[in-house]
Amino acid sequence: MEGRSVRVSLPRNVICAVVGLSLVAAGCTGSGAQERTAGVGNTTSSTSTTTTVEPTTTTSSTTTTVATSTTPAPPPPGMGRESRGPEVQALEQRLTELKYDSGKVDGVFDAATGHAVMAFQKANGLPRSSRATDDVVAALATAAEPAAMLPAGGPDRVEIDLKRQILLLYKGGSLLRVLSVSTGNNKRYCVDGQCATAVTPGGSFKVNRKIRGLRVSRLGKLFNPLYFNGGIAIHGSPSVPAGPASHGCVRIPMHASLWFFDTVPSGTPVYVIGGAKAPVPFNEQAPPDDGSSDTTAPTTSTTSTTSTTSTTLFGPPETTTSTTSTTTPSSTTSTTTTGFTG
User: Fold this and answer.
1) What is the pTM of this model?
2) Are 236 and 224 within 8 A, CB to CB?
3) Could you give the domains of the chain?
4) Residue 135 phi/psi, 5° resolution?
5) Which of 31, 53, 58, 99 is buried most, with the most CB atoms less than 10 Å from its CB?
6) Computed from CA positions of residues 147, 142, 95, 245, in that sequence, does the dihedral angle turn out positive or negative?
7) Up-side HSE of residue 315: CA atoms within 13 Å toward CB?
């Protein structure tokens, strides 16, 4: 038996059975994998649920409220340019009694009333506000006329108090009018290449030159000037503040300038009190007489008005008669480069 191939013969039916099992096994392996794969594909359902969430936008708004006051500021204390009525009329009447020039006594607090209040405040050492405050009203109730500074200066004279910034006009030995003034401010200034100090020199003088109407010079405008010390004059000005402000002249309120011009003749003594003697700046002189001085007589109309004051602000009710003079001057404008202005 050695060296001989042994051939085992299996029965035919056994061989068929083995082959069949092999095919079954192979078929099961392949189809099973396919079925498993198919099964996974069939059992996996892709369900897509889309939920749309609307975006919520939150806007944070911060509002800052600034409180704006609509309440108007209270007016200054006392009576002023906005005032009118019986109390103002009583104020004007009392000022007039004390010789302060308040203009027309009509119950309207106008510029003339303000200048009169200012003059009273200056004369009595009160705060210079041009308003009739409680202290002014109280002082007016017991005040007297300002005392003369130079009683021996003559019956007709002009006294200018540099310290108090007031002017006192005397006629026939009695006080006729008190005006607020503004004199030289003692500051350095230059004009046309020349420099000087704005001073109103003290001393005794006389009115020596008068010019009716407006005069224009290199330092400004003068209304109805009365020259008394070289080129220094008493004249009307739109600006008469609480203190010294001129180049050297004596400013008086506009509403009084023509009346003063007509009332004070040439030759009237003028006493400037409270200032040192000093030369006139630039040694300026009054402009020469060109025929435009005080030779033209004004036209004056006089009316009398009787009124009853019913207020008791400064005393019992009383009936007063006031006389108003209206003066119409001839129109004169003098333009010159000589003479001092302030």
Assistant:
1) 0.69
2) yes
3) 86-335 (2.40.440.10)
4) -65, -35
5) 99
6) positive
7) 13
